[in-house]
Amino acid sequence: MRVSHAMIRKRLTIALLAGIFIFLIIVLRLGYVQFFLGDKLSEGAKLLWGREIPFEPKRGEIVDRNGVPLATNVSAPTVYAVPRQIKNPEEAASKLASVLDMSKDKAYTLLTKKEMNVKIPEGRKISHEKAKEVRALDIEGIYIGEDSKRSYPFGNYLAHVLGFAGIDNQGLTGLELEYDKELKGKKGSVQYYANAKGGRLTDMADDYLAPVNGLDLKLTIDTKIQTIIERELDNAEAAYSPDGMIAIAMNPNTGEVLGMSSRPGFDPANFRNVSPEIYNRNLPIWSAYEPGSTFKIITLAAALEEGKVNLKGDHFYDPGYINVGGARLRCWKRGGHGSQSFLQVVQNSCNPGFVALGQKLGKETLFKYIKDFGFGEKTGIDLQGEGKGILFNLDRVGPVEQATTAFGQGVAVTPIQQVAAISAAVNGGTLYTPYVAEELINPDTGEIVMKKTPVAKRKVISKETSEQIRMALESVVAQGTGVNAFVDGYRVGGKTGTAQKAKNGRYLENNHIVSFIGFAPADDPQIVVYVAVDNPKGTVQFGGRVAAPIVGNIIGDSLRTMGVKPRKDQIEKKRSWNDTPMIEVPDLVGITKRELGELMVNLRIDASGSGDMVIKQSPEPGVKLKQGSTIRLYFANNTEEMAKNP
User: Fold this and answer.
1) Does 148 qualify as catalytic in the annotation?
2) pTM as predicted
3) Regarding the domain with residue range 51-215, which homologous superfamily does it belong to in the CATH classification?
């Protein structure tokens, strides 16, 4: 059967059109792949070819309120291997082992692993000198990645607050753990490209992804105050060899923690050298024990707020004991204090007197104030491991439990609870949440990412009641059991505490936690300081004897550091026979050397300048100094020189 020419042309046309159609589909597909899928496919291929060397970010620094670094970083390179690129593993292992002080067998095992890249354990966070030695080996497939390790410039200073970071720069305790997410940043990398056999593709440039550094953390801590605290605890440790010590300094008007220390301490950079019981227990927030007489401030505040007592008008007779519910509760002073005003009850820290105040309040009211002041619950401080203490269940509180609670026995509280509560008692009546971290700052831009402000929980007592408490506690330091915390030139208030330690349900003999909590200036508190010393040796174990002078020294030097000027309106200190007499500095400006000799001033003189007339003196007139102290006098010849040196 013959096919006509028309049919042939028709078939050719169809074939041509089909070919053109197929060609167009191929062209369109190629265009689609080239222009629409090209980047995606290239990226996919690069992912298959890509090999990464990680670059660690810089962990954010932790600084004090003035920008002093407390936790920072030092560069510490890390060695990586890409096994497929190592041509002679045996030779490479031998060279690497000699530099990194590792066995040749271990090095060989690592260099022959069937992995894209291997981190060499002995090459982690090495010195730059050691990294230079590794580079000098010139082993193909061995790389040096940028890394860092945590550094704590002050050693064991503030260790429990800061905590520490592990070898991978991950926070493990303290603020390092609490703010780990913000401090750690995001990893970067250098990505190179290799073929299926692991050989490097030299015609493709490496890609660098910069790490994102962590945020810096600024604290409320003042290193000047912290240094004073550490110095005083060092001195106390040398003098008393205690089982432990605790110190907290706080701004009572905001809840900002200015200083905190827990002994025994440790060096965060060498935390593996101490027991976990030491570095895991930040005693100022974790430890709970009977507070002793410092707790009497809460009973006093409740009685004053409820109008149950007039400190100067009401009196109490103390025979040395008080009978409650068939039990005889004794005063610390054998024979008692006799007849005294309730202000003297506070000054003398008289247990029977405070039992009487607790009885006037009743258990419901007493325990209401105890809970209002924050006891029995966590303060909410931004540190790991806070305890909440132990209080009696109200339905189990009988007359004896009520009485002992009134003077600080039978309950267990934490130091930070006491500091927060007493701050509320003296700041006008507001309970604040304590905090240590103030700001998170972007180190690259300086932008403040997070800023904390004081958090007022509740109003506990009135301003008027707070004023009475400050007056009473100032008299404790000037005239009562806290006299060893007295600081010349500063109005200090405070309360002693001496608590027996219990074990297996029994109180231990001659084993006490002695404490003192103080604040200043008494009319406008700027700082509250609490110190507790656990079982001091070779001394009478009283808070007024051991802890009070430590607090006095911390408060005095801290106020000077804070720029708070001395004043003349102190309550006169009750002097003992061995106290050095105090002398009020006279006004000496304008007198001559001859007149100065006739004054018989019992002070040492440090003279400066030439001439016969005093033109300037330090300290100013009216300041009280211990007899024999040194004052500085500046001399000139005439009024013209006086004008030059005002």
Assistant:
1) no
2) 0.77
3) Penicillin-binding protein 2a (Domain 2) (3.90.1310.10)
